[in-house]
Amino acid sequence: MQRIDRLRPRLVVLWWPTLILAGCCAVYGFFIGRQLDPSFEQLLYGSLGAALFILWLLPTLSYAGSFADIYQDRLIIRRGLFGKKRTVLFVDVLEITGGAVRGVVLTVRDQENAVLKRYPKPKAIAAQLNALAK
Asked: What is the per-residue pLDDT for 44?
C-alpha cells in the first residue's frame, strides 16, 4: 500500500488565528516596558496567554492534523486536533463530484458521504480520485 499523495486544506483557514497572534503580540509589545499595577499585569498576561492558546494554538494544531491521504485503493481522511479518521475504499465509491462551493463529495455505498471541504482545486482532486476509482 503505497501513498500516492497527501492533500492539505487551504492555508487561508489560518488567516484569523494569524491576525489574532499579531494583535496579541502588538498588545504585549505595547505594555512590555511600562510600569503596571501587578494585578493588572497578571490579568493582561493571563488573558493574552489564554487568547493565544484558544484562538491561535488550537486552530493551528487542528490544521496541522487535517489531511487526506490518497492510496491506490483507498482514501484516508483525517480531521481535527485529535485526528478523527475515516477510510473510504474506492470499491465502495459510487460517485465523485467536485465543486467550488461544496468541495469534493464522495458518495459511498451504505455510508454517509465523505466530503473534502476547503481543499484547493476541488475539480482537479475529483478528477484524480475518479481516475483512481475506475
From this structure: 96
